[in-house]
Amino acid sequence: MYQSWLQDQEDQNKLYKDFAVFLGSFTNWEMAQKISKEDDIESSDEDFEKSTENVKKISEIIEQRKVIQSKEVNLHRRRRKVVN
Fold this sequence. Notes:
The chain has helices at residues 2-24, 29-37, 45-75. The protein is an all-alpha fold. The chain is elongated, with a radius of gyration of 22 Å.
């Protein structure tokens, strides 16, 4: 039973790793290829800082888009007339 659970956990972790490599391949194709070929990954502090900045920029862009979309929805919304 424990071995089955452990295998499930390893499969789930591999799925997460593969998905992370897939997402990272859009911004840094060479690093994604390197990660997918190697099990042990080494990166410098500069690489880590660059990746962190990219993630922050992407999250800011997503938040800006959400604000713009919510404003557009409110512009096209009709208001009901209150009849007494």
